[in-house]
Amino acid sequence: MTKIFKQLARHWAVCLVVFALLFVQAYCDLALPDYTSKIVDTGIQQGGIESPLPQTVRQSTLDALSLLMSEEDAQKLQNAYQYYLQDDGVLQLRSDLTEDERTALEEAVTTPDIVLYMAAAQAANTPAGQNSMGMTGLAETPSAAADADTETATPTAADLDTVCSQFAAMSQMPGFTREAVQQQLAGAFASLDDTLMENLKSQSMLLVQLEYEAQGIAHDVQMRYLYRVGGQMLGLTLLMVAVSIAGGFLASRVSAAIGRDLRRETFSSVIGFSNAEIENFSTASLITRTTNDVQQIQMTCVILLRMVAYAPILGIGGIIHVAQAGSSLTWIIVLAVALLLALITVLMQFAMPKFRIMQKLVDRLNLVSREILTGIMPIRAFSREQHEEARFDAANTDLMRTQLFTNRVMAAMMPFMTLIMNGTSLLIVWFGGKQIDAGTMQVGSMIAFITYTMQIVMSFLMLTMVAVMLPRAGVAADRIDEVLTTEPAIHDPVPEAIPADLNQHHWNGEVAFHHVNFTYPGSSEDALHDIDFVAKPGQTTAIIGSTGCGKTSLLHLITRFYDVTGGSVTVA
Questions:
Q1: Residue 518 half-sphere exposure, CB side, CA atoms within 13 Å?
Q2: What is the pLDDT of residue 192?
Q3: Strand pairing partners for 568?
Q4: d(CA 519, CA 527)
Q5: How far is residue 153's CA from residue 151's CA, in Å, rounded to a whole number?
Q6: Rounded distance, CA 20 to CA 78, Å?
Q7: Rounded to an integer, what distance in angstroms lies between the CA atom of residue 505 and that of residue 256?
Q8: How does strand 511-518 pair with strand 528-535?
Q9: Cys bridge to 146: 174, 196, 340, 517, which one at CB 3.0-4.6 A?
Q10: What is the pLDDT of residue 108?
Q11: Which residues have CB under 8 Å from 361's CB, separation 6+?
């Protein structure tokens, strides 16, 4: 693997650009589930309302909310609104409020929103002609809201108007004080646990939605929110697509350049080899290394730039988002990842050894094919077709069995991984549905959690696919490096040792052997011993001998396919 990273290091500038694009792509990919959650929870369930502080409010509703607040908070709330120029009956939230002022008002108005909405709900369930509110009704409202078994009708804008009128009348009653109201509300909410309080806080958004319905703008508010958030999602998606295309293009360029350079360097090394190196590697193996092995490295470089770098970013980002959500379903992700790692470990124990020997089997098949094709005429002449077919079939069958084994292992891996992914989704829906029913989780949050879980699982799947390809690529890189680092047995003289007037020398074409000895590498006996003769131009020099006496070896020495082990060969 070190050799592959060295090849990538040659193009470090482009690789850095690809990594930067991957971070942008991961940011977009991780942001989309949050937007989905916003559309479901806020855009659909809450009618596009993001804050318990309404942007526009009628004076009657504002006065009713103020009655449920302390004197100081009520004054701040009244000062935060100003009248529309075109409509004197509706007030608009001032645009010059600071972020801290808005936050303080949202916290102050949440409880009055809850009480006012539940009072409207109580009014919707009160028979006509009966008074639904009183001083004790304020204290009972939160407890009634917390009762999950109580069947209540959905309040309307008319119910809200009724409650606002009752609150206005109640403020005129003798003995009414804000302090008494605050004490009653504090006592009522103190009896509720944290879970019920979180469930009640969503009611504050329902009051704002009810107020917008009374103004006739609820649909417009919801559509504006959906268009805005949907437009942001579309923009992020388009950005992610553009970044993904750019990253893929650059990664392909880098891998293609690495493949080009490796083929060029390998071919340049092979051109300088003597027959000893050619026979050591075999022509078939050199062809495989220049084509198949380089292709393996080229494909692995693309995957390294596109998956190996992207999977950890996506997985870690998904874990961070899940941790920030603080969900109690995190154990499901831990279980899914543990099962995936166990499955990958077991399968890789069987598949990895086969991946390591696959390239050698490809070499063997190419060698047999080359020998048969180059010697097809002698094979036919000596009726050796069946024997050579058996040789080819043996090499072909061995490669087929190895490939079948690895393919079956990978084919078996995918159903198990799909089962784990679907089982994880089922667990999230099952336990998430219970939390939604309890009011501790919203539907959009569960959808986002499922998406983040799938992203985390997919990051492990991508790393698994890379782990499958890396052993073959590592073997291919070692084989190519073996060719590049092999020193040829024949060394040309350094330029400084060549006479300056060599180009002006008059060549006669006289070849002379001066007591030449030659021994093949690995042999203990000389193939040629004490050969001494001169072959002059214009004359015929015949080399005669029996098969294996060294005629071809002598010619190879003239063309310098081999270097002599003793004496010298000169051309004058």
A1: 26
A2: 62
A3: 514
A4: 5
A5: 7
A6: 49
A7: 45
A8: antiparallel
A9: 196
A10: 87
A11: 395, 398, 399, 402
Cα 297 to Cα 362: distance, rounded to the nearest angstrom: 16
Identify any residues that bridge with 91 across adjacent strands, giving them in sequence order: 57, 83
The conformation of residue 497, written as its DSSP 8-state character, comes to G
CB-CB neighbours of 516 under 10 Å: 21
> Which element (helix H / strand E) includes 570?
strand 566-571
List pLDDT tens digits, range 89-141: 788 888 888 889 888 998 888 888 888 888 888 888 766 545 555 544 555 55
For the chain, which residues score pLDDT lower than 70?
1, 84-88, 126-153, 175, 189-202, 326, 356, 359, 439, 467-468, 491-506
Give every CB contact of residue 475 below 8 A, 6+ residues apart in sequence.
Answer: 356, 359
Handedness of CA 252, 258, 264, 269 (dihedral sign): negative
How many angstroms separate the CA atoms of 81 and 90, rounded? Answer: 9
Closest Cα partner for 402 from 353, 461, 449?
353
- Provide the pLDDT for residue 185: 73
Q: Are the C-beta atoms of 558 and 569 separated by less than 8 Å?
A: yes
CB atoms within 10 A of CB 303: 19
CB 571 within 8 A of CB 506: no
Report the predicted TM-score, pTM, of the whole model to 2 decimal places.
Answer: 0.70
Compute how many other C-beta atoms are within 10 angstroms of the C-beta atom of residue 326. 7
Distance of CA 316 to the CA centre of its chain: 10
Q: Facing residues of 201 across strands?
A: none
Which residue do the tokens 């268009």 mark? 227
Amino acid present at 270: V
d(CA 200, CA 178): 22
Q: Helix count (H) and strand count (E) of the chain?
A: 19, 6
H helix or E strand, kind and range, residue 349 = helix 330-374
In angstroms, the CA 67 to CA 55 distance is 19
Total residue count of the chain as it appears in this document: 572
Q: CA-CA distance, 259 to 253, in Å (whole number)?
A: 10
Residue-level pLDDT at 148? 43
DSSP string, 23-71: HHHHHHHHHHHHHHHHIIIIIIISTT---SS-SEEEHHHHHHHHHTS-H
**How far, in Å, CA of 301 to CA of 5, rounded?**
9
Q: What is the Cα–Cα distance from 13 to 11, expressed in whole angstroms?
A: 6
Looking up tokens 């998956």 gives: 307
* Residue type (1 letter), 387: H
Closest C-alpha to 396, from 385, 408, 388:
388
Backbone region of residue 282 per phi and psi (left: phi > 0; alpha: psi in -120 to 50; beta: other values) = left
Of 93, 147, 145, which Cα lies nearest the Cα of 122?
145
